[in-house]
């Protein structure tokens, strides 16, 4: 029963993650298409979990998911942000982890993967 | 001892005694003094040691040579150093590093020996353990190694690391340098990830970093996977596994799957495939240099798209390569040739599977067999009804019926898989079945039941005929069994031969079984020749093995072959050799309805005859119909054509007609009345007519040899007519009748 914020510039990803999460019994409280929007959504809704795409177009100086992550961590040092990444972005993910991300999901996203991460982060 | 104050000497001596394993012996090696440490480690009491020879602590594992050397050294006044294994009182052991030195008096004469020992048991244990571990590591196929937070590789690693990493030694080296020497990016990722891992305390976070480290790496010649484990001492364990070969296998499998996909797509999109392939062939004829670049790019791109729909992977990749070269301005003539080669290879793969004619642009359509049957039965009704013998219709009827014919080769080819499967199931070492024969020989569908029944011949060969490898070896036979199936068309018969190189049939067993089944008696057997005895195997329930399994034992396999063979009016000859193997020769008449042939032949001649009568003899033809009986009062002549079949052609002409013919030949109005000449004329005409007609005969009759015209006795003629297929055609002209008799003699060879 967690509140989730989905951040991804691709609509199909936002839609599929929403569908899976709803099936798993969670609420999609907000969606964002870029890092800047993500920060403002986070401020407004304080979601339990943020699913953040790592590479997104730059808006307002927020270059990508990692920048957004840093800002969110500043807002709430206990924020749970999970990066959504494609194959080949290991280096970026490492950086995200070092900056406070709690984990990552490899695309293509599946219900199982989301279930596992929810379990791990203890977000029942 | 130098400079020690006396009060401290005792203290020091005690210290020594407690901690240093000391002993003093006399010149004969008898123990005079032992320190406390000696007593402690040897577990003997002082009393048990004093007065005993020092070899009381000698361990049986120690070779005596070492003590010989020791004794030689010290008795010559020198000091000996070495490692010795000693025996405890309770039979335990301990290792020492010993120094044995002679004790001399002031004159330099040896008065005894002293030995100082250092306990190295733990060290020895450690070395032994290390050797064991190293032994283990050296025999593992994978590469194990460990490294610390400074990325330094530690001493113990498995030998295979050296193979995988192409190094002579890796201890103390930097793992990142060695592993990722050729890939800066991966090295960077590896270093960063490991550093973060080492820095953080949280185990879960460590695991996350671990999962992000490079899992696969290509290092010059090897492709290997990397697995990571965090060890209790916070070092990292690396497991390297060489998957170069595995990947080759995987890519081979993937390639095969791609090919299969291509075949399926092309089979289901035949028209598109043919069209595309034709247009690409045409496209390839042009030198690429002569085509304007943009047009070339467009064409290539379009072709690439179309080929990708047909899944012709190799051609697609080759086109892609050319596009790249075009972009880089590096296109040469050779590239087009290379593309053509790869394209042709794809084509060859397709035609190998589907047949050479598959891709020919000749249009072919599918027709169902019932449709043909419907048409032929309608046509037959029409022919029956018509009074006018429409021979052309009959010929057309025959052609249509033959549309259903199939290649005998294809009918037999299906057995290739069956043979392979049975051979595998019965564990027999066999060459793949070879079908030899022309793919152009077409036979009626009635052959199918027969060719299907041949599975029993094949399975008998494999199961009972061809021996196991060891037995074949024992008899110096060729290592692999072989079954050959070949056929040819000869004298209007299909000669089909199936032979194996197994152990043939056991005549005695056949005789025994034949008698048992009451097919013959002990006495009658004596009158039979070998071939007749062999033929018993085709009888019902004739099985010479005691068990019944999935493949054999029921005794009806060959019986069904015989049954189908008889339906085709065929015969079989068996050749049996206990060493060379068994062979079946089937002879099956090629055309079932020879009777039809007489009609067809007659039609052909009648056709030409009518033309001849009208054009050459200037007669009018009134009616043509089937005659019922021959009138040998007329002049006639008979010519036999022999060869594939034996056919008799007889021509009967009314007198008036003969006279007209004479005029044609002689151009003389003189009336002839000598029978001889009249008969000669008939013969001449028949010869001419046959010469004109033979090209129109069905294929089986075109290679005939014309005999000499004769006059056959009418009784003989009538006998022939009764016993064979014959047709009598009568043509009515204004000058009388002409009759043609065609008799196709059944092959009684």
Tell me what the structure shows.
The complex is a heterodimer of chains A (124) and B (749). With 124 residues, chain A is α/β, with parallel strands linked by helices. Chain A is built from five helices and five strands; from the N terminus they run E-H-E-H-E-H-E-H-E-H. Chain A has helices at residues 11-23, 35-45, 65-75, 90-98, 111-120, and strands at 3-7, 27-32, 49-53, 81-85, 103-106. Chain A has a five-stranded parallel β-sheet, sandwiched between helices. In chain A, strand 4, helix 4 (90-98) and strand 5 (103-106) form a beta-alpha-beta unit. Chain A is globular, with a radius of gyration of 13 Å. By secondary structure, chain B is α+β, with helices and mostly antiparallel strands. The mean pLDDT of chain B is 85. The A-B interface holds A 90-91, 93-95, 97-98, 103-104, 120 and B 185, 188-189, 192-193, 196, 204-205, 208-209, 212-214.
List keywords for this structure.
heterodimer, A: 124 residues, alpha/beta, 5-stranded parallel β-sheet, 5 helices, globular, B: 749 residues, alpha+beta, 6-stranded antiparallel β-sheet, 29 helices, elongated
Task: Set down the secondary structure blueprint.
The complex is a heterodimer of chains A (124) and B (749).
Chain A: E1 3-7, H1 11-23, E2 27-32, H2 35-45, E3 49-53, H3 65-75, E4 81-85, H4 90-98, E5 103-106, H5 111-120
Parallel strand pairs in A: 1-2, 1-3, 3-4, 4-5
Helix pairs in contact in A: 2-3
Chain B: H1 6-19, E1 21-25, E2 31-34, H2 36-42, H3 46-49, H4 64-75, E3 80-87, E4 93-104, E5 110-119, H5 121-138, E6 143-147, H6 160-165, H7 175-179, H8 184-199, H9 203-212, E7 216-219, E8 222-230, E9 236-242, H10 244-268, H11 270-284, H12 293-309, H13 313-327, H14 333-354, H15 369-385, H16 391-402, E10 406-407, H17 408-413, H18 415-425, E11 434-436, E12 442-443, H19 447-453, H20 455-465, H21 469-474, E13 483-490, E14 493-500, H22 507-516, H23 522-525, H24 530-534, H25 557-567, E15 571-577, E16 581-589, H26 594-616, E17 621-626, E18 635-642, E19 646-653, H27 655-666, H28 675-693, E20 705-706, H29 714-723, E21 725-733, E22 736-745
Parallel strand pairs in B: 11-13
Antiparallel strand pairs in B: 1-2, 1-5, 3-4, 4-5, 6-9, 7-8, 8-9, 10-12, 13-14, 14-16, 15-16, 17-21, 18-19, 18-20, 19-22, 21-22
Helix pairs in contact in B: 8-9, 12-13, 13-14, 15-16, 16-26, 18-20, 19-25, 26-28, 27-28
């Amino acid at each position: 029963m967690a509140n989730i914020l989905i951040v991804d510039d691709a609509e199909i990803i936002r839609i599929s993650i929403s569908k899976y999460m709803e099936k798993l019994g969670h609420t999609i409280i907000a969606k964002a298409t870029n890092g800047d929007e993500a920060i403002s959504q986070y401020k407004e809704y304080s979601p339990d979990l943020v699913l953040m795409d790592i590479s997104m177009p730059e808006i307002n100086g927020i270059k990508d998911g990692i920048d957004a992550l840093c800002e969110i961590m500043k807002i709430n040092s206990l924020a749970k942000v999970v990066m959504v990444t494609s194959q080949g972005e290991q280096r970026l993910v490492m950086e995200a982890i070092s900056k406070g991300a709690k984990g990552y999901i490899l695309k293509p996203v599946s219900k199982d993967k989301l279930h596992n991460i929810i379990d791990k982060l203890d977000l029942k | 001892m130098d400079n020690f104050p006396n009060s401290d000497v005792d203290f020091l001596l005690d210290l020594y005694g407690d901690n240093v394993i000391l002993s003093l012996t006399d010149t004969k090696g008898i123990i005079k003094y032992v320190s406390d440490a000696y007593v402690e480690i040897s577990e003997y009491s002082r009393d048990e040691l004093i007065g005993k020879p020092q070899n009381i602590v000698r361990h049986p594992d120690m070779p005596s040579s070492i003590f010989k050397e020791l004794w030689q050294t010290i008795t010559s006044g020198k000091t000996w150093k070495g490692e010795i294994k000693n025996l405890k009182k309770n039979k335990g052991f301990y290792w020492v590093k010993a120094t044995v030195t002679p004790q001399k008096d002031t004159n330099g004469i040896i008065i005894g020996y002293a030995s100082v020992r250092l306990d190295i048991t733990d060290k020895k244990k450690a070395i032994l353990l290390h050797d064991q571990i190293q032994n283990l590591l050296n025999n593992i196929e994978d590469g194990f190694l460990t490294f610390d937070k400074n990325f330094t590789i530690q001493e113990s690693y498995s030998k295979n690391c050296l193979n995988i990493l192409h190094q002579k030694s890796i201890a103390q080296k930097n793992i990142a340098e060695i592993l990722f020497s050729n890939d800066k990016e991966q090295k960077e990722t590896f270093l960063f990830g490991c550093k973060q891992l080492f820095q953080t305390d949280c185990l879960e976070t460590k695991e996350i970093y671990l999962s992000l480290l490079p899992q696969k790496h290509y290092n010059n010649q090897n492709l290997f996977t990397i697995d990571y484990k965090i060890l209790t001492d916070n070092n990292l364990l690396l497991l390297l596994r060489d998957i170069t070969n595995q990947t080759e296998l995987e890519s081979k499998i993937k390639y095969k799957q791609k090919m299969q996909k291509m075949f399926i797509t092309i089979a289901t999109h035949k028209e598109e495939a043919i069209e595309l392939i034709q247009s690409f062939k045409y496209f390839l004829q042009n030198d690429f240099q002569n085509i304007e670049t943009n047009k070339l790019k467009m064409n290539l791109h379009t072709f690439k798209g179309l080929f990708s729909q047909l899944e012709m992977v190799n051609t697609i990749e080759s086109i892609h390569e050319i596009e790249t070269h075009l972009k880089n301005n590096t296109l040469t003539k050779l590239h087009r040739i290379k593309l053509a080669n790869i394209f042709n290879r794809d084509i060859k793969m397709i035609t190998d599977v589907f047949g050479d004619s598959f891709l020919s642009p000749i249009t072919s359509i599918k027709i169902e067999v019932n449709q043909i049957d419907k048409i032929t039965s309608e046509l037959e009704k029409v022919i029956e009804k018509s009074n006018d013998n429409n021979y052309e219709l009959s010929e057309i009827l025959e052609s249509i019926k033959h549309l259903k014919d199939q290649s005998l080769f294809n009918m037999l080819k299906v057995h290739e898989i069956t043979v392979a499967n049975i051979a595998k199931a019965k564990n027999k070492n066999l060459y793949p079945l070879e079908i030899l024969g022309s793919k152009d020989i077409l036979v009626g569908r009635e052959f199918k039941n027969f060719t299907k029944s041949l599975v029993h011949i094949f399975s008998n060969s494999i199961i009972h005929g061809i021996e196991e490898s060891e037995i074949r070896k024992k008899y110096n036979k060729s290592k692999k069994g072989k079954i050959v199936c070949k056929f040819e068309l000869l004298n209007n018969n299909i000669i089909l031969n199936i032979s194996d190189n197994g152990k043939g049939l056991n005549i005695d067993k056949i005789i025994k079984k034949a008698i048992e089944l009451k097919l013959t008696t002990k006495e009658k057997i004596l009158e039979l020749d070998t071939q007749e005895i062999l033929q018993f195997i085709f009888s019902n329930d004739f099985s010479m093995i005691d068990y019944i399994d999935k493949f054999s034992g029921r005794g009806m396999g060959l019986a069904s072959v015989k049954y189908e063979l008889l339906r085709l009016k065929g015969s079989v000859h068996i050749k049996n050799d206990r060493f060379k193997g068994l062979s079946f020769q089937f002879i099956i008449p090629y055309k079932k309805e020879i009777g039809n042939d007489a009609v067809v032949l007659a039609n052909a001649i009648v056709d030409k005859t009518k033309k001849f009568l009208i054009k050459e003899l200037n007669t009018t033809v009134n009616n043509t119909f089937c005659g019922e009986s021959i009138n040998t009062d007329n002049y006639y002549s008979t010519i036999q054509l022999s060869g594939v079949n034996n056919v008799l052609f007889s021509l009967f002409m009314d007198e008036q007609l003969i006279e007209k013919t004479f005029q044609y030949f002689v151009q003389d109005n003189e009336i002839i009345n000598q029978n001889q000449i009249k008969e000669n004329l008939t013969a001449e005409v028949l010869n001419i007519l046959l010469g004109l007609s033979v090209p129109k005969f069905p294929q089986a009759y075109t290679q005939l040899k014309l005999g000499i015209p004769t006059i056959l006795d009418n009784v003989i003629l009538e006998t022939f007519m009764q016993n064979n297929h014959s047709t009598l055609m009568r043509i009515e002209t204004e000058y009388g009748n002409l009759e043609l008799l065609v008799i196709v003699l059944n092959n009684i060879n």
